[in-house]
Design goal:
Helix content is about 75%, strand content about 0%. It is globular and about 60 Å long. About 45% of the residues are buried. It comes from Cellulomonas humilata.
Length: about 270
């Protein structure tokens, strides 16, 4: 076991304090305490009915679970015995950066810049992808820290992956780009197919780390399902998009299960040959 250094202690305190500020700022900025809700900001460009790819309003309740996980992560990584944990050393600053970017995204949307929000959420997705890669490549250490980190980052990355696609669609609609020659339905189906492909990519890359990829699949399936449900009722009904969203949700849900089982079976076969 490595020795905890002064740098480790500084990181632990900074991440804990930064997480408190970021989560509180995000909650206030999102309208949780009476301010302007995100759905009403930027002229309603990110509302549940703005585009065919907008998730219905209940989908956003997943943020409560993500914020809870991030809060628990911040506390767990700050415990004295976790100072020298190699996985936490590798990801804690990146997780804090993701929280600050999320708060920044809310601020940009509240300022009315849909284009700016696309840039910020793109960077946020990239940061979470870095965390994902590191969690897959670095072996589990302590049980509590590993499980909390994996589950939280998995849910966070899965949801942000779907939210990024919806955010881009909202920007294009707000910018008046139109249907780009194919029509809103065709483009929506293409984007949903891309989401399904992304969920498979996550599952294949992280097949040895089910504690990360299963939450990713759950969060993506949650968001995609609510896109589908949003297209079955209300002002933006589109049965084709709804069907595509439900199929994509099923793929996102099954992909990590299939790849994890296949990976374990492969390891077991190798063991019998040794």
């Amino acid at each position: 076991m490595e020795t905890t250094t002064t740098r480790d202690r500084v990181r632990q305190v900074a991440v804990l304090l930064g997480a408190v500020v970021a989560i509180a700022g995000a909650a206030v900025g999102s309208g949780a305490f009476g301010g302007q809700p995100i759905a009403e900001a930027a002229g309603g460009a990110l509302s549940a009915t703005a585009t065919p790819l907008a998730p219905d309003s209940p989908a956003f309740s997943i943020w409560s679970l993500i914020y809870l996980g991030l809060g628990v992560f911040a506390v767990v990584q700050a415990l004295p015995r976790q100072g020298a944990d190699p996985r936490l050393r590798a990801v804690s600053w990146w997780v804090l950066a993701s929280m600050l970017l999320n708060a920044l995204w809310i601020g940009v949307v509240q300022a009315g810049s849909v284009g700016g929000s696309v840039v910020v959420i793109g960077v946020l997705l990239a940061v979470l992808a870095v965390v994902f890669v590191r969690l897959v490549r670095i072996a589990h250490t302590g049980l509590a820290a590993s499980v909390v980190t994996d589950l939280t980052v998995g849910l966070y990355l899965g949801w942000v992956s779907v939210a990024t696609l919806a955010n881009i669609a909202a920007f294009l609609a707000d910018a008046g780009v139109g249907d780009l020659g194919l029509g809103a339905t065709a483009w929506s189906v293409i984007v949903l197919a891309a989401a399904a492909a992304l969920s498979i990519a996550y599952a294949v890359f992280g097949r040895t780390r089910p504690t990360v990829i299963v939450p990713i699949g759950l969060a993506m399936a949650w968001g995609l399902t609510w896109i589908g449900l949003g297209r079955t009722t209300g002002p933006v009904v589109d049965e084709t998009v709804a069907a595509a969203a439900f199929v994509a949700a099923g793929i996102a849900l099954l992909a990590p299960v299939v790849t994890s089982i296949a990976s374990r079976a492969r390891v077991a076969r190798r063991g019998t040959l040794v």
